[in-house]
Amino acid sequence: MVLTLAAAVASAVLELSLTAQQRSGDGLEAGWVSGLAGLALAVPGGLLVHRVPRNAVAWILCASGLHWALDGLAVAYVAWAIAHSPTPAGAEYAYWVYQRVGAGLLFSLPLLLVFYPDGRLPRGWWRWAAVGSLAATAVLPLTLLFVPARVADAMDDGPAPAAAQGLSVDLLHLPLPDAAWEVLLRIGYAALPVSLLIPFAIVFRRYRAAADRARMRWLLWAGVVDVLVMLSALVLPQSVLGAGLFVAIAVTGFAIAMGVLQPGLLDIDNLLGRTVLYGTLAVVVVLVDAVVLALVTTSLGTRGAALAGLLVVLLVYGPLRSRLWLLVQRLVLGERHDPYRIISGLAEQLERSGSPERQLLAVARSVAEAFRSPYVAVEVHRSGGEALLAEFGRAAGPTQTLPITYRDETVGRLILAAGTYRTALSPRDERLLADVVRQAAAAARSSYLAAELQVSRERLVGAREEERRRVRRDLHDGLGPALGGVGLRIDTARNLLTRAPERADQVLRQAREDVSTALADVRRLVHDLRPPALDDIGLAGAVEQLAERLRAPGLTTRVSATLPADLPAAVEVAAYRIVAEALTNVTKHAGAAHCTVTLTAGADELVIEVRDDGSGIAPGTPSGVGLVSLRERADELGGRCEIICPDGGGTVIRAHVPLAPPTLG
Description:
GO molecular function: phosphorelay sensor kinase activity; protein dimerization activity
Keywords: Cell membrane, Kinase, Membrane, Transferase, Transmembrane, Transmembrane helix, Two-component regulatory system
Strand content: 5-15%
Protein name: Histidine kinase/HSP90-like ATPase domain-containing protein
Organism: Dactylosporangium matsuzakiense
Membrane topology: Multi-pass membrane protein
Shape: rod-shaped
Number of domains: 5
């Protein structure tokens, strides 16, 4: 960077030492433009070397900046030497650097394109394509180092400027015939535009890759500015073209540094959009003005034509700006420039989508279109522990996960390709994304709950019929024959009573045993329908009795209950079954030393908590039948059940059961 600064300052000093009269007609470019261009590349290059010294882009910028500055110093020295000495010392070497070594500047652009932004060549066969394109680009600069001046002048733009006619550029020689040099020059000129296709294809490929898109937008912005500068060269006077070149190179260096170091520091989407908008407007205004002047100058004169052009521009500017701004926002931001359109479109898609799977797919598609993401996935948790997943696009790189919350509960997650939108979303974008996700969560949750309700109803009907069938079977196959057998024994005892009393007594004893067995079956049936302990000693006592019966060796179970006296029967049965299943799991699987059962009735719900200090549940373990039944019993009454494994170990099963049935509306 020091060498670049010294070369730029020296070229500026040499330029200032020449008067306008002395420089006029020498046909040489202004050296200060190249000197400033070199500084515009060396400054961001030096910053990158300081921050990311292993990134090849930093060193390419520094080398390109030094090259530009030396090129500017060479042409400035040639102009100064021609003006001040009839036999300029070193002018030939300076002119050779300017004419032949300066051609190496053609190599810097494709070199930057293939290494930006991480300083590495692309992978796979793209790497070999990049190396081949760089080799093709180097043909022309290398040929110009050795080609004789007569051959180069014949194939290029003609002889050197008049002031430099006496300066030779044939300082390096290779013994080749002129025909061979002509072939090499033709190959070099032909390969130059073709060899740029591969670097631009690499840039496009990296732009499409989610990980690099934010950085590539900075390069895209620099490209837009460069195109606008080139278009301005068609209408601006020759005297300001050097300033335009400096602006283009300075913007490129700044954009590359921002893209490598801080791609999210500025709102590149807004900057890119406004650059495209006002640049396009400027081009259109100039074209409209030129057309109007060409059409009406003859009839209205120069002054009238200028006024007519101004009037047309004023009439066209407002509507054109509005339409262009909408188009630019759609191209740069995607559909998220119009939040109402996204929300209304999503609502329409959700209405047309019948199943939860299709609704989640509609959400994924809306988010992908709004935020220009190549991959979006929406995942919603189900009560059974499994997840419902809908994907749009293909994940080609790292992803970013955002939680989906509904009524202060995390019901799923949103997965997007990382880096596809701004590194830091604007507050407006964050609100839009939150609204889309909230609407999606509500719709998906409602559809899923409706589907679950239908499944639950079918399950309840099936369970009820199965229970009836079981009771009928138990009564028909168990209690019925048992009672029939008792009746036969009683008849037998009556017949034996007069002639064999002892035998009759034995038969009656057997009948009594059969009655006891039948009574046990009846009690079992009654217990399956509703545990009798709930009616005898209440829910708290029944749970204490249950804890005592299910206590394992080495396990201490404590029951704490704060309950009203008039709990609904369905709530009592559900709570009893939940505690029974939870304590069974603790006894069989937890290996715990302490277990606490807490029953707390609030204003509108009963909270059941079973906490142990056992081994807990390993992450990724699928829910077994017991854990699923816990959730189902809570869901049947409109409640919920959550299973938590704290960091310190153990398991917490917490169920919330409403004390009153849920109502619609």
